[in-house]
Amino acid sequence: MRSLGAVQALNLDGGGSTAMAVRGTLANNPSDATGERAVGDTVQVLPPSAD
Prior knowledge:
Blueprint: E1 21-22, E2 25-26
Antiparallel strand pairs: 1-2
């Protein structure tokens, strides 16, 4: 995160259900034996709005 310019960062979960999508495409390989799972929570990083 520091190399990306972050001043503060927090790892929320690194478990088997962790998945990262970029523009709607899965960008990692979840380590859960059954693959990608449905989860109830998400953290999203979005660009500032162009208001």
